[in-house]
Design goal:
Layout lengths: L5 E7 L6 H9 L5 E7 L6 H4 L9 E5 L6 H11 L4 E4 L5 E2 L3 H12 L3 E9 L5 E6 L4 E3 H5 L10 E3 H6 L9 H13 L1 E13 L9 H14 L4 H20 L1
């Protein structure tokens, strides 16, 4: 897969303090990239933060006319992408330099339509914690129901699949629903159990509140069509996995 180009989609809202480091980490990948930044009506100086890329033809900035949320912003990025593969990274995260190359190689070897990676947690100020959240090297639909082990900022996927399964439900875990829909059709995805993603923990993020995240996870099970009893079963699995993930 030498020379394969990837469209990298970065939804951004008031992220002028962190977006340069995110984009810079994308530019340091060992393969060609097309960077699509979707500005979701930011009120800070996001444009100024990206001045260093103003003349870079690899960077395309799309501006929403009104605040649409992260799901719609990612979908707009996918629609604008021109490459066979798309990758997602949030504007406060970073990648290790060889992330995309390793994922594309694995996808070529396995024929998988989606690949994720492990991640290292980073403090809000950008300092690294050394705490790594691992991933199984194969993720099945049934495994995913017991807890979302696919972090969006680590994902590379086939663009045609992303177009068929756009993200929605921005009020809950929009990416989790998307992964479940994809794996229900394709059976499984692959992953690299290396912390190729540096994941920044932000106090004001959607997933920052564990109680809020738990409520949204239960809503995901109901959204994908499971009854209350089945949803409670999967929610208990999610809760146990969450304790194991963060404490051990």
């Amino acid at each position: 897969m030498t020379g394969e180009k990837v469209s990298v989609i970065i939804p951004a809202y008031n992220s002028s303090r962190t977006i340069y480091s995110a984009v810079d980490s994308v530019m340091k990948q060992g393969i060609p990239v097309e960077v699509i930044i979707v500005d979701d009506c930011s009120t800070d100086d996001l444009t100024g933060a990206l001045d260093g890329y103003a003349e870079d033809d690899r960077v395309n900035i799309i501006r929403n006319e009104k605040n649409m949320g992260v799901a719609v912003s990612r979908n707009r990025g996918v629609a604008a992408a021109t490459c066979r593969y798309v990758a997602f990274i949030d504007s406060d995260d970073q990648w290790q330099p060889d992330k995309l190359a390793k994922q594309l190689k694995l996808m070529e070897q396995t024929g998988a339509v989606l690949c994720s990676t492990a991640r290292e947690l980073v403090n809000e100020d950008g300092s690294r914690t050394g705490k790594v959240i691992g991933v199984p090297e194969k993720v099945t639909y049934k495994m995913l129901l017991r807890g979302n082990v696919i972090n969006c900022s680590s994902v590379v996927m086939d663009r045609q699949v992303a177009l068929r399964y756009p993200m929605g439900n921005d009020d809950i875990h929009e990416d989790y629903i998307c992964w479940l829909q994809i794996l229900k059709e394709y059976g499984s995805s692959v992953a690299i159990n290396e912390p190729l993603l540096l994941y920044r923990q932000m106090r004001n993020s959607k997933s920052g509140s564990k109680l809020s995240s738990a409520k949204k996870t239960f809503a995901v099970y109901r959204k994908v069509g499971y009854g209350v009893i089945r949803s409670c079963f999967y929610f208990m699995c999610y809760a146990v996995n969450g304790v194991v993930k963060y404490l051990f």
